[in-house]
Design a protein that fits this description.
Layout: H1 10-34, E1 38-39, H2 41-50, E2 55-58, H3 62-65, E3 76-77, H4 80-94, E4 102-105, H5 110-121, E5 127-130, H6 133-139
Helix pairs in contact: 1-5, 4-5
Length: about 150
């Protein structure tokens, strides 16, 4: 196809640029709001190997956690919906993990960002999100447990 005779006016180009910017901001907003570091899978694996006390919290649903995609070994399944609904009840339990490194995981990293923000606001000081989530973890060749 020959596109050489297509003309794009300034208004169309500006609209396109604004749409791209809005899409980018929409994707980055949870990350900015979480206020915690994002850790790449290889760095997270090294952290887990180096410090076995690191708490991995997987915020996916129980069926996803035990499903075909599996989960990171020794991860605690605390679905985001449960975390949001029960934060007042579990806040005291979280206090014992205040200085424990915590890695929050979901399928991509969008839900993890929300969970990390909740955990940080409720006393956990060393919270990080697995960048790209379990999807990136598996793509990097890191091991999962299928239950």
């Amino acid at each position: 196809m020959d596109f050489s005779n297509i003309q794009i006016d300034e208004r169309t180009m500006m609209s396109f640029v604004l749409i791209v910017i809005a899409f980018y901001i929409g994707r980055q907003l949870p990350r900015w709001m979480a206020g915690v570091p994002y850790v790449k899978p290889d760095v997270a694996k090294a952290q887990l190997d180096q410090d076995p006390d690191t708490l991995v919290i997987d915020v996916r649903s129980p069926s996803q956690f035990t499903g075909k995609d599996g989960h990171i070994k020794d991860a605690l399944n605390l679905p985001l919906i449960d975390l949001m609904g029960r934060i007042k009840q579990i806040k005291a339990d979280l206090a014992e993990y205040a200085d424990t490194p915590v890695l929050v995981v979901c399928k991509t990293d969008q839900l993890s960002a929300r969970a990390a923000r909740i955990l940080r606001k409720n006393g956990l000081t060393k919270v990080a999100v697995l960048a790209g989530g379990l999807k990136a973890w598996k793509k990097a060749g890191q091991p999962v447990t299928v239950a």
